[in-house]
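[recover] target loaded
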């Protein structure tokens, strides 16, 4: 691979600590207090500008054309004002977030965080009347709105929301429901969080909180993995009836609500979830069907792991076991990692490689291990000017190179959409991982090609195996369980024993003989099932993984032309459905299994590589 070293030497050195001082000098910057005061004033003004919309909500569906001009003018004023507020507020939030990532105890950061959260709640509350108005007003008004050049950017979001217009209740009922949900529906997930936070598990005679115990499944000591897993199981088993009550309450509420909303047109719970994720039901069906047909890929990955671990049969506590030959892989410096990633990105386009280097030169990445930083990794952005930031802790291992590549993919997504209006740069969960997994795939391929000894190749192949098992078996099993739970709940209360059987059956359906036993308490130990805000939290991850690989699969077919197509696709992720995106830019139909088969072929090849190493 050629290295543009002659120009690189003249450029600024790479930074491993970020510099956000162009926004505020520090968390003690008096400008923060001044900004908060200005925002409070602006939000009060916004509230005033939006109040008149409440008066039009009741008659919105029969609004006369003579009233259009006046109201369009008001929509424009409110929209411009809210974008200005959100740009400043998002930047402030990102700044406070960046401070707290590096030092979770920063006193000023901790003081400002709730203030910023409160301002967000107020700004969304402020434009709610206009939002409800736009949801209920007649189509003619919306057509006029879209024709207005200053409001055309709202087309996708407004039209998308209005597809469920017939699911709206009366204004009074909506208010009542939202009010009751605070202490009804949402209290159940609070109860779950409380339980998870206080529950103690016994591991080898030691009592520990679940958060600490959760770090142990990645240990290479199999006996300890087993002890931890069993400790966590019995902790949750002692609360099984409570968690069963939580799940029954949440799903009972949802069923009742959708019955009320579906009086004109009954809406299937999966259709609702697809709408939230900007995909078609036919797409979800094709995805799940194609994945089920190829479930043996994930099963082969687990069996290969079992052979390396020299265990008779894989157990649920082995799913995250580390590769059995640690210590023999190269440790990379941050500079080497950026160089490796940039070169892998350059195989797609030089601009993406240069971008990775620029992120580090500009001080837009914070990756230096320091004492008080939080765990985990994320990519966020400042607005106005739109600039991505990456937070992670880089330790030179293969895992952290892949995390860096993943986050740089997110950053690239933000970067290629930086000139778009704010309301076109919010991506649904299904599409949010497109660029990150794509970037990760480029780097995985480069790493494997570069691996100089079998231990390094195994480390990469092992990571591929764990990924295949999680995405192709574990996430689908959650989907199968949740679907079964909803159907069962329609008949009445589902007791803990039945939930155990249902979870066992769901695992059996996907894992079959690749595991010797199944996690029958997974419905209790996995928080996702008890989250009141959203059902089917998990399949968007499977979708994002295979969607990104499906786009990657088109790379060679389009050759030189691919990068422009890919960039344009990324630019449209906040203003098209997933089907439109792929049809428009790659001329493929994701409602057909062929698209998903091509993604699964890529996973199949990586698992075959893993098997070949084991042989
Ligand atoms: Zn991600």
């Amino acid at each position: 691979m050629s290295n543009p070293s002659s120009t690189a030497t003249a450029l600024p050195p790479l930074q491993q600590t970020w510099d956000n001082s162009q926004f505020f000098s520090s968390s003690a910057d008096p400008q923060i207090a001044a900004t908060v005061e200005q925002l409070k004033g602006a939000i009060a003004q916004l509230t005033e500008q939006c109040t008149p919309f409440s008066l039009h909500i009741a008659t919105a569906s029969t609004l006369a054309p003579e009233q259009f001009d006046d109201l369009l003018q008001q929509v424009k004023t409110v929209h411009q004002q809210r974008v200005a507020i959100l740009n400043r507020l998002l930047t402030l939030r990102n700044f406070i977030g960046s401070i707290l990532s590096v030092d979770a105890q920063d006193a000023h950061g901790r003081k400002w965080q709730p203030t910023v959260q409160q301002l967000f709640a107020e700004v969304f509350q402020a434009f709610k009347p206009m939002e409800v108005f736009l949801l209920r007003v007649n189509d003619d008004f919306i057509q006029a709105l879209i024709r207005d050049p200053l409001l055309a950017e709202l087309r996708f979001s407004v039209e998308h929301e209005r597809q469920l217009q017939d699911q709206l209740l009366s204004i009074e009922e909506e208010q009542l429901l939202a009010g009751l949900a605070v202490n009804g529906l949402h209290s159940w997930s609070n109860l779950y969080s409380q339980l998870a936070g206080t529950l103690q598990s016994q591991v080898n005679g030691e009592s520990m909180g679940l958060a600490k115990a959760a770090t142990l499944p990645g240990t290479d000591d199999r006996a300890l993995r087993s002890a931890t897993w069993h400790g966590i199981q019995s902790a949750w088993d002692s609360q099984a009836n409570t968690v069963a009550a939580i799940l029954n309450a949440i799903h009972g509420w949802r069923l009742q609500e959708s019955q009320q909303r579906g009086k004109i047109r009954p809406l299937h719970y999966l259709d609702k979830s697809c709408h939230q994720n900007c995909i078609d039901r036919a797409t979800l069906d094709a995805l799940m069907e194609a994945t089920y047909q190829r479930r043996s890929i994930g099963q082969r990955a687990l069996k290969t792991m079992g052979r390396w671990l020299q265990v008779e049969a894989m157990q649920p506590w082995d799913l995250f076991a580390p590769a059995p030959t640690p210590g023999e892989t190269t440790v990379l410096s941050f500079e080497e990692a950026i160089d490796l990633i940039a070169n892998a990105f350059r195989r797609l386009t030089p601009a993406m490689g240069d971008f990775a280097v620029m992120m580090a030169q500009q001080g837009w990445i914070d990756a230096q291990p320091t004492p008080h930083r939080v765990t985990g990794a994320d990519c966020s952005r400042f607005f106005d000017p739109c600039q991505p930031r990456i937070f992670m802790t880089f330790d030179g291992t293969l895992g952290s190179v892949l995390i860096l590549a993943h986050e740089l993919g997110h950053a690239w997504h933000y970067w290629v959409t930086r000139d778009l209006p704010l309301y076109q740069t919010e991506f649904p969960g299904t599409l949010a991982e497109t660029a990150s997994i794509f970037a990760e795939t480029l780097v995985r391929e480069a790493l494997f090609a570069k691996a100089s000894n079998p231990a390094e190749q195994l480390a990469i192949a092992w990571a591929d195996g764990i990924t295949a098992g999680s995405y192709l078996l574990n996430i689908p099993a959650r989907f199968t369980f949740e679907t079964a739970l909803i159907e069962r709940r329609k008949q009445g209360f589902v007791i803990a024993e039945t939930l155990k059987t249902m979870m066992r059956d769901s695992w059996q359906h996907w894992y079959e003989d690749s595991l010797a036993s199944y996690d029958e308490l997974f419905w209790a130990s996995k928080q996702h099932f008890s989250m009141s805000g959203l059902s089917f939290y998990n399949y968007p991850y499977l979708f994002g993984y295979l969607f990104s690989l499906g786009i990657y699969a088109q790379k060679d077919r389009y050759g030189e032309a691919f990068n422009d197509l890919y960039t344009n696709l990324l630019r449209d992720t906040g203003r098209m459905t997933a089907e439109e995106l792929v049809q428009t830019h790659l001329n493929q139909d994701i409602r057909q299994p062929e698209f998903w088969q091509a993604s699964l072929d890529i996973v199949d090849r990586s698992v075959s590589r893993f098997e070949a190493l084991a042989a």
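[recover] notes: DSSP finds 27 helices and five strands in the chain.
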